[in-house]
Amino acid sequence: VSHPCHVLCVLQLNEMIRSPAEGHFWQVDHIQPVYSGGGQCSLENLQTLCTACHRERTAKQAKERSQLKRRSLATKYACDITKFLVKK
């Protein structure tokens, strides 16, 4: 498995070299994600990640958050099948 830093596209790498800017190399990441209560945190919940790793982690968390939302909606709108059974 290649490290996310190694899969940055050539255009992004060229831009980073030609015109370095804040956020190109390192970003702050919440160890416990904001969506699961990590938003109001102290420094202990923060870490630095390279931009590529942070992008990958954020994408993975977005997928997890989407799955949690789908499960929550499924539970909320799920029917109790017993009300469809005929009682004798």
Automatic annotation (TrEMBL):
The UniProt record lists the keyword Nuclease: yes
Cellular component GO terms, alphabetical: nuclear replication fork
CDD domains cross-referenced by the UniProt entry: HNHc
Molecular function terms from GO: ATP binding; DNA endonuclease activity; helicase activity; hydrolase activity; nucleic acid binding; zinc ion binding
Top-rank taxon: Eukaryota
Keywords linked to the UniProt accession: ATP-binding, Endonuclease, Helicase, Hydrolase, Nuclease, Nucleotide-binding
Gene3D superfamilies cross-referenced by the UniProt entry: 1.10.30.50
An example Gene Ontology biological process: replication fork processing
Alphabetized Pfam families for the sequence: HNH
InterPro entries: HNH (IPR002711), HNH_nuc (IPR003615)
Designated name of the protein: ZRAB3 endonuclease
Source organism of the structure: Hypocryptadius cinnamomeus
Taxonomic classification: Eukaryota, Metazoa, Chordata, Craniata, Vertebrata
Chain's gene name: Zranb3_1
